[in-house]
Structures are given as structure tokens and as C-alpha cells.
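Hey, resending since the last one bounced:
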Amino acid sequence: MSSFYTKSGVRLDYVESGDKNGKPIVLVHGMLCSKDFFQKQISFFKNTGYHAIAVDLRGHGDSDKPLEGYTVKTYASDLHELIMELNLQKPTLLGWSMGSMVIWDYFDMFPNEVGALICVDQSASDFAWPDWKLGVMTTNDLRDISEITQTDREPFYKELIDLMIHEPNEKDSEFFLSQMMKIPPVIAEAIVLNQTYQDYRETVKKINVPTIILFGGDPKLNPPAAGFWLHEQIKDSEIKIFDKSSHCPFWEETDDFNNTIKSFMDSL
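The C-alpha cells again:
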């Protein structure tokens, strides 16, 4: 594991695998999660000729947990600093869940510095705006989450994990929970609130680099319809549904997922 300090002094931890001279792919995790969710992808890329990097966003995993900066745009800016430090040229950016929002903001800010996008199981907005039927969160939901995150978060996280996995099992659930519990409650609340109110319906229409959209077929957390909406908005994008997965196809259908992203990168 390696570390990098942003200009604001925040330490970000990351892991690398593969050929450092190969085409780069940067993997960005979801809300309340960590780079270790991509352990099966980091292992896969060791012998593919590609250069894979997975990072813990600020406040997550083993990275620093300052008292400020918990906005998706800040995560994107942090990511840009890391990519510049590693001298990665037009990387493929893979974002899962909130990580997709991070790479959409990254593209919006640095459109000429992105090679391709891989968007995994994330709607253009999680909030149920009056004109957005694919949003799943309401103001009342956020009020309840805000309170429970501060008072009794472990049962809430366990319920969330059951939604994330198509067929939950004790080993996976314990790992997911261990990563979520690394985040202090006050930071977790800030992360959830900022992420949920983001709206990328207009941003994604600007995407003009090769893009593939990967969704789980089990709609327990995000409906596949949200993926097809993205597919319709992003010109020349590809889409694939993993029927035996919920929110985590990279974890639940690892071989198919890894081969899919490698084939996509091979085509670039």
C-alpha cells in the first residue's frame, strides 16, 4: 500500500498492481466503502499488462479523515491530484456507486484528461426529485439516516449490506461492515447527505469518451432502468447487466466482471 498527500495535507492511501508502463485504470469505490472492495480486481490486473490503481477517498478506508471536504467535487479534485502525481496519461476511470459520481465530476472538470469511463451501478441521481422517477431517496429518508448514523449505525449498515449483495453471506457481510465502521459517524453523515443530493442528469449528457455501464440485475438497491437511462444519454455507450448481482457485480460475479472490463479496455 502507498500513500499520497494532497495540497491540503490530506493523506490518501492507494494500492497498485500490474505493469506501471501499461494503460492505467483507476478504480473509485462507493459511499462509506474503500479500495479493498476492489481487491479481486487489483489481483486480476497483476498479469494483464495494465496498470491498476485503487484509492481510498478522503474519510474512507485507511485514508485521512479530516473534518472537512466531504463533497463529491472534492473527491474528484483529490483524485486528480493523485493521478497527476502518478503521471497517469488519460486513464480509464472506473467508478462504482458514488464513485461514478466522482468520475462524472472528474470528467466535467478535466474532460481532456480522461481516456474512458466505466460506470458501475449508479443512477444519475439518488434523490427522488419531482421530475426524476429513478431516484430512491426522499428527504424523510435522509432525516432518518442522519439520525441513525449518529446513534445506532451498525444495524443500519447491516440492512444496507443486505441490499448491496444479491445473496448475502456472513463472510462478505462482515467484511463490508468492517470497512464501513472505519468512518466516524459525523463524517459518514456528511458523506451520505452530500452524495444523495447530487444530480448528474445534465453532466452525463456531455460525456464523449468511450463508456461502458455495468449494473446488477437485482434491483434491491438500484434499478437497472437507471443504467439504461444512462445508456440512452451517453452517446455510443455500452451497457451490460449482471443478472446474479445486486449493487456489487465486481464482487458477486467477479470473473465475468473482470473479463468485461478487460475486453472493454482492450477495445480502446
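The CA atoms of residues 216 and 246 lie 5 Å apart.

Sorry for the duplicate.
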